[in-house]
Amino acid sequence: MHKHDFRDEFHARLLDPKRKSIEDPEKFIPELLSGNEVVVDMGCGPGYYCPVLEKYSSKLYCVDIDEKALSLAKGRATKDSTVFLNEPATNTSIPSGVVDVVVFSNSFHDMDRESTYKETIRLLKPCGKVIIVDWKKEPTPMGPPLEVRMSRQDYSTIFKDFEIVKEFEPGPYHFGLVMKRKC
């Protein structure tokens, strides 16, 4: 008998093509990346952002602690240069100071914030950027519980060595930030 795994339903929801109607990375990622950057998709899950990030980066690292999600992300990859790491966001094997951009799409709120922040600093080049796409801290028809959501101000407080250089609207239920490390 096949054991039911709730993650299968969760991953299927994250990869549902209908998601594009509320959050389509193809609409905002191209203007946020130059195409020749080393990018980390931190907490990539089943790889919803992976095909778009691959297209607009020179090298992509997809990092997630969920092995099953990571195998789905691998199936969505199109470039040999994409690296998949089954590791925590707090301690990756990515070399120090080689990353131009770290992307957190609907993931940072579920991570150990202080340790993940320190790891982000370790990975980034001196003037590196962080792109945040996260749920608005208000009731929405879907998304994580309100108490785990983070506001723009929460991100500004945690990412204290960064300045917000751009705000954007990824969709009706999300907000987006581009933060550049002060250098």
TrEMBL record:
Pfam families named among the record's database cross-references: Methyltransf_11
One example of a Gene Ontology biological process annotation: methylation
Keyword terms, alphabetized: Methyltransferase, Transferase
Protein name (Swiss-Prot/TrEMBL): Methyltransferase family protein
Transmembrane region(s): none
Superkingdom field: Archaea
Family, as annotated: Belongs to the methyltransferase superfamily.
Gene Ontology molecular function terms on file: S-adenosylmethionine-dependent methyltransferase activity
Methyltransferase type domain: residues covered: 40-132
